[in-house]
Amino acid sequence: MPKILLVAGDATEDLEFFYPYQRLLEEGYDVDVAAPSRKKLSFVTHDFVEGYDTYTERQGHSWPADLALSEVDPAEYAALVLPGGRAPEYLRGDPDFPRVVTHFFDAAKPVAHICHAAIALAPLGVLKGRRTSAYPACAPDVELAGADFVDGPAVVDGMMVSARAWPDQPEWMRAFVAVLREHAPVKG
Fold first, then answer.
1. Could you tell me if residue 104 is left (phi over 0), alpha (psi between -120 and 50 degrees) or otherwise beta?
2. Does the residue 109 lie in any domain?
3. 152 lies in a domain?
4. Beta bridge mates, 44
5. 107: domain range?
6. Which residue in 46, 61, 113, 116 is the catalytic one?
7. Is 113 a catalytic residue?
8. How crowded is residue 187: how many other Cβ atoms within 10 Å of its Cβ?
9. Where is the DJ-1/PfpI domain (predicted)?
């Protein structure tokens, strides 16, 4: 059974973690959660409130990381998922994050990212020349990284599937699962 790596951290957006995690398990994939360290992660929930200029944030669920980023051998995984939230702000500073993430782009493996995950990808140079979605406030980061920002729910650019935020998850995961079924199918 193909394995998928889901990279998260404290302050990962709750829905952007659990929706793909459970959807990919349902599809038959093994999903490992990696974080800066092996620990129980604390997630957050973001919501959109009428009249509020940005999103709100509350404490979300928690979930254990299966392994630390330093323990990850990305060659063992068929695909990568990067949820958003505030976690990408500090995940991009983890010394093992670039090694793990760039492997998937260099090896042309499927990658799904959503919301603020784009700000963790931008410094790695992996967005250059691509079309990608992200939370609209991240558009300047995407464009500075040399990518074309697309304000859409499921943007497919080769093996990369991106979306704006958790309201886009049905379209995002439907597109990502289609890429997985073609390039990393579950056998049997």
1. alpha
2. yes
3. yes
4. 13, 59
5. 3-183
6. 116
7. no
8. 6
9. 3-177
The dihedral over CA atoms of 79, 84, 89, 94, expressed in degrees to the nearest 10, equals -30
Is the pTM here over 0.85, yes or no? yes
- Retrieve residue 43's tokens: 């997630």
* Rounded mean pLDDT, 152-170: 97
**DSSP reduced 3-state for 8:** coil
The structural domain count of the chain equals: 1
In a domain, 188, yes or no: no
CA distance linking residue 113 with residue 49, whole number of Å: 24
What is the Cα 100 distance to its own chain's centre?
A: 13
CATH number (domain holding residue 14)? 3.40.50.880
Question: What's the Cα-to-Cα distance from 82 to each of 13, 33, 97, 100, 162, rounded to whole Å?
Answer: 11, 10, 11, 12, 9
Per-residue pLDDT, averaged over 89-110, amounts to: 98
